[in-house]
Specification:
The protein is mostly helical. The chain has helices at residues 18-21, 25-36, 38-44, 49-56, 66-76, 80-89, 93-116. It has 7 helices and no strands.
Length: 120
Amino acid sequence: MNISAEKNQLTLDFTPGLLERHRNLRDCITTGIYRRGLSTVAIDLNESPGNLSNQLSDESQRKFGVDDFEIYLEKSKDYTAIYYLIEKFLHKKDVDANATQAKLDALEQIQRLMKQAGLA
């Protein structure tokens, strides 16, 4: 029997992360909407293209709402904005530290239970 390792080529991606490409969440959403087509998304959201454009701009008093964001996600299947939020809030060191501490606490509890059961 001949076993050979699968040959893979190392690829490097130098594309900046979402936090480097976008100023904020609205900018990330706006980029996705314009990439998909303002008119197409406006139809999905039951808005006029002009009104949607105003909602997405920095200057307007009327902002793109959470309900519209949900509809956009459902219709477009573009989850880039969610990945942006994950990258911004869930990849921080304090979150990692909290997760590590929770694992250590769970391990200590398991060790105590094993001792009580006479397994350690």
